[in-house]
Write a sequence for this structure.
């Protein structure tokens, strides 16, 4: 199956195929990617590799990953504002992979 044939939707059905019967489904996700496009491509690759027809209910979560010098205080561990810190956004997409019965 070509990746161009994998339909994804943020709704509960693929609009063009709303009348079709789903025979199997599975929650899937692609975590820790550098862009939404990379996370989406990973979802589509998983669908193709595992013989599903599409993904519904697709959502994206963006997480700021802050790292650098830390110091420990009695309330916990904090980034040291005088040290070097860096932040990076990581993208996770998840949804329900579906296969059609017909």
């Amino acid at each position: 199956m070509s990746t161009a044939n994998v339909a994804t939707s943020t709704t509960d059905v693929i609009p063009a195929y709303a009348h079709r019967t789903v025979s199997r489904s599975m929650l899937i996700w692609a975590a820790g990617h550098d862009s939404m496009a990379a996370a989406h491509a990973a979802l589509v690759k998983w669908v193709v590799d595992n013989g599903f027809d599409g993904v519904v209910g697709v959502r994206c979560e963006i997480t700021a990953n802050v790292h650098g010098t830390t110091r420990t205080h009695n309330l916990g561990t904090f980034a040291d504002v005088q040290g070097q810190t860096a932040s990076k956004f990581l993208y996770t997409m998840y949804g329900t992979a579906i296969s059609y019965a017909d």
In short: Residues 30 and 71 are 32 Å apart (CA to CA). The two ends are 16 Å apart (CA to CA). Residues 3-60+90-100 form one domain. The first strand starts at residue 7 and ends at 8.
